[in-house]
Design goal:
Oligomer: single chain
CATH class of the largest domain: Alpha Beta
Number of strands: 15
Number of domains: 2
Shape: elongated
Radius of gyration: 30 Å
Helix content: 40-55%
Length: 510
């Protein structure tokens, strides 16, 4: 079966779903009907829930309602909706909001743009399905579809509203329908994994959106809505916003709705769309995806993996017995920023035997200091009697508010864990962590295969692979790695020195 036939079959099935979900089940007197319609048009959430039950399986999120109302109030808006995956940005911006505006009499024409012509046509099929088969909408606002088809890239309604699609870069000049220019344009998922790697193509696409495309819309009243995920630090979306790694100044005059999967931007926070997702559901997804993929898809933190630390350098294997290690260090990086769960707390346990280094265990999680300290005590109590581990954290933390967490745990356990302070005056973090990369490159590092399924170990490795200059990602685990390895390497040099006693060859020099 051809791709076209598959697309047609999927669209027909979608139309059937729309029709079945919106069958009329009540008979109203005209006055009651008018009152109901007026009430629904005033409230976006009620409008979406009533007319689109096949899309609205849970109540609208606060951020969805806010964006819709902002777009409704400003008829000359340029908006960027940077929402996570599965947060209905395409449904709201591509179907419900424009059909709300149409019901209000404000939609004169709509343009949808995808990364290519096929994507653009496919997106056009969604509003056409509603206008042809949504019985609730048709009952209240009359027959809609007149002629044309999404497969051909355009269709028109009975009130002469033109819906048209384009692929990225196609010429939209002369886009008129009976002397009316479209006044609503949706640019949806314009980025792809190839174009973001070519700065010239990205720049060309940005100029096309802001020039040819935006210029084809009505000057006085037109809404340009751009939705998508930030899949690269220098993506098209990032350039439209004006918020790239190179430029932190946002483009003036843009409504930028940037929503994370959780309210506070952490893996453990309250879901932004709490009406639809639970914290447990999101955390399971983040855990299964891994750190840097979850950061990209749900927190708008795109990561270029392997710029400094390569995936090929990560090796798993059976490590020596702990009692056979020359030295073992557990290094705790509790994060400078706060004691709360906003930041990752990292404890990395490293061992050294000869010139080889072994990552024995890890705690890497957005958690409280108390939880991390408990893990450290549990790890200590799991050790055989003949194994000695040196515990370290930065000196500043031992003299800070973090000390009380150790003190409280000590009272609970009946002993104080001997944690030493790392007294170094540390140089630049990027330089420090980059300096240990040759240890991985030379194959001197081995990860404990007994912990291969540990989410803490996986998150730690993800942070290491994602580490790069200027990246807006968490680096607490690589920082703890550097602290532990600096101590082990320094101790190894001291231990390997063997003094030699003998006669001085040149006594006159002494």
């Amino acid at each position: 079966m051809s791709l076209v036939s598959n697309a047609q079959d999927r669209w027909r099935e979608h139309c059937r779903v729309v029709y079945d979900a919106t069958r009329i089940s009540i008979v109203e007197v005209p006055a009651v009907k008018r009152q109901r319609i007026a009430r629904l048009l005033k409230n976006y959430a009620d409008f979406a829930t009533y007319y689109f039950p096949h899309y609205i399986s849970s109540p609208c999120g606060d951020f969805q309602i806010e964006a819709a109302n902002k777009i409704r109030r400003d008829n000359n808006i340029m908006a960027v909706l940077e929402w996570p995956r599965e947060h209905a940005k395409s449904v709201h911006a591509g179907v419900i909001i424009p059909l709300w505006l149409k019901a209000l009499g404000e939609l004169k024409g709509m343009v949808v743009v995808g990364k290519n012509e096929t994507d653009g046509c496919t997106m056009l099929g969604r509003p056409q399905a509603e206008l042809e088969y949504n019985q609730l909408y048709i009952e209240d606002f009359g027959p809609q579809h007149q002629h044309g088809n999404w497969e051909e890239g355009e269709f028109e309604t009975t009130d002469m509203v033109l819906f048209k699609s384009y692929g990225r870069g196609q010429s939209p000049r002369g886009l008129l329908n009976r002397e009316r220019r479209p006044n609503y344009c949706l640019v949806d998922d314009i980025d792809d994994d190839v174009i973001v790697l070519n700065p010239d193509r990205v720049d060309e696409a940005v100029k096309w959106i802001l020039g040819s495309l935006y210029g084809s819309l009505a000057i006085k009243q037109s809404r340009l809505i751009i939705v998508g995920n930030r899949i690269h630090p220098k993506s098209i979306l990032a350039h439209i916003v004006g918020d790239t790694d190179d430029t932190k100044t946002k483009r003036p005059g843009i409504f930028h709705s940037k929503v994370y999967a959780t309210v506070d931007g952490t893996f453990t926070g309250k879901p932004s769309w709490h009406q639809n997702f639970t914290s447990e559901q999101l955390q399971l997804r983040f855990q299964r995806m891994g750190y840097y993929l979850a950061m990209r898809e749900y927190f708008h933190q795109p990561v270029i993996v392997g710029k400094i630390f390569k995936n090929d350098w990560i090796h798993w294997g059976k490590i020596p017995k702990l009692s056979e290690m020359d030295n073992i260090v557990a290094y705790f990086d509790p994060s400078y920023k706060s004691k709360t769960t906003n930041d990752f707390k990292a404890i990395k346990v490293w061992g050294k035997k000869g010139i080889n280094l072994y990552c024995i265990d890890a705690f890497v999680k957005q958690a409280t200091i108390t939880e991390a300290v408990k893990w450290l005590y549990d790890f200590h109590e799991s050790l055989p009697d003949n194994v000695i581990v040196d515990y370290y954290m930065e000196e500043v933390f031992l003299q800070d508010m973090f000390y009380e967490d150790f003190e409280n745990e000590a009272r609970s356990r009946g002993y104080f864990l001997p944690v030493r302070g790392d007294k170094r005056s540390k140089p630049d973090k990027f330089a420090r962590i980059q300096a240990i990369s040759p240890l991985w490159e030379r194959g001197l590092v081995l990860y404990n295969i007994a912990k291969k399924n540990s989410s803490h170990m996986i998150t730690g490795i993800d942070q290491l692979l994602a580490f790069q200059k200027g990246a807006r990602i968490h680096d607490d685990s690589p920082d703890a790695d550097e602290g532990a390895l600096w101590i082990l390497q320094r101790r190894g040099r001291v231990d390997s020195f063997e003094p030699v006693i003998g006669n001085r060859i040149h006594p006159n020099l002494w």
